[in-house]
Inverse folding.
């Protein structure tokens, strides 16, 4: 066999041994990146789909906080009467019932 032909064959074999593993590793990284991207997009879509229910829950909580702030800052009304009125208006959201009795002042 010709020595030049052997040199060319060795060069092609060496180049193949270097390029193919590199291409395999790069392709593997690209595939893993695509899988992570799809998983994140699915999580974003899931979060966006659930945001309608959480927005409604957030509105309810904001309304409750506004009522509680109004009760806490308004000194002109009887606090116990307002709390009892709130309990009566939302019986399913009360949680653990508290037995609070209003003491009547004789003054």
């Amino acid at each position: 066999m010709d020595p030049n032909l052997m040199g060319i064959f060795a060069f092609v074999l060496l180049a193949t041994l270097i390029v193919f593993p590199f291409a395999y590793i790069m392709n593997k990284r690209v595939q893993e990146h695509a899988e992570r991207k799809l998983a994140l997009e699915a999580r974003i879509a899931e979060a966006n789909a659930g945001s309608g229910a959480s927005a409604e829950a957030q509105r309810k909580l904001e309304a409750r906080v506004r009522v509680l702030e109004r009760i806490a800052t308004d000194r002109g009304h009887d606090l116990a009467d307002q709390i009892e009125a709130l309990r009566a208006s939302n019986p399913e959201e009360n949680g653990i019932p508290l037995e609070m009795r209003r003491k009547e002042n004789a003054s």
Notes: The two ends are 122 Å apart (CA to CA).
